[in-house]
Amino acid sequence: MDYAINYLMEVLNKIRNNPYGIRHTNHYLKRSTYRDVDLNCVNEKLLSEIPVGIQKTLGYGNRFELIFEYTENDDLYIIVDIINSNEIVIITAMPKDKKRREH
Question: Most buried one in 59, 66, 73, 82, CB count within 10 A?
Fold first, then answer.
């Protein structure tokens, strides 16, 4: 399916009331160990914060890149797929320099 950003925001709002709607891929779990990304922090960002940026991933109708403020120098990029109206799956998460967003 091809989802709009508005629909992603609706799904995120539903997940805030049901954190069991967040799934994780093996790729995400493996990569987070050496990317210095705390799994609880990622879940907390999704459950309680509004992203400072959202972008659809080309070629995937259900995949989005969410950008959250993270540290003084880095933003946290979280890539998610919408599974259905109550669930998302985290594909990966990684810190990136905030300067990427300043342009």
Answer: 66
